[in-house]
Amino acid sequence: MNFLIFPIRFLYKVYFFLYFVLTLVLFYPIFKYLLSKKERFPMAFKVIKVYAKVWLYGSGIFLRVKGRENIITDQAFLICSNHSSFIDPATLYIIFDQYFVFTGKKEIEKWPLFHIFYTSGMNILVDRHNRLGALKSFKKMMDVITEGYPLVILPEGTIPENAPNLGEFKPGAVAIAIQMGIPILPITQTTNWKRLQRGTMFKGNASPGIANVIIHPLIPTKGLSKQDAEALSEQLRAVINQPLHEKYGVS
After folding, report:
1. How far is the CA of 95 from the CAs of 50, 71, 109, 145, 189, in angstroms?
2. Longest CA span, the chain
3. Model's pTM, two decimal places?
4. What integer is the mean pLDDT of 97-126?
């Protein structure tokens, strides 16, 4: 069976990445212009939403979202999702209509073309191996929240090799939520790892299909202190993991 599936999966991966590069190159001049000035960032966000749809829908990946009623629009909040696939950011851009700021690992600045979304200043790169750099990134995150915008942090920091199992949650997400007193919106992307799993062109799942997303009720943080950070992180992880445990039996 694997012998029959492998060539189909490989050809889909080739198509997926070629289509991604081609569409990004076509959109790149628009992004270059819109991301050159901060006042254009909200418009850039709207174009990124369009690009995300062109990329995923053109790859045969469509969204099914449960829990849209849990999204708020009257204040800043923290969006925390599991990270099981390279398409996770694209699905979040499609789901949310209000402008938000994404955080990502510093290594992204070395990625060809794609780095423009972070090196332009619209989104925030975090260097977890440099204390001073991490503090500067933390300050930028607080500024975003103070301005009233949602902030996206993927607590795992990277895609686990054994997704859909969750990786270790980094403490930064709950730390900034507690410090700024903003609620956390947990999100579980249950099938993105099937659409495009981490791995080489010869390994890992890849297929068109449905990207199922569950938006959970908000987790409040007002009144919490640093002493509550560990418990809050465990609560956040448990909420995000519940659908994965029910569907795949992961712990």
Report:
1. 11, 10, 25, 20, 12
2. 56
3. 0.94
4. 92
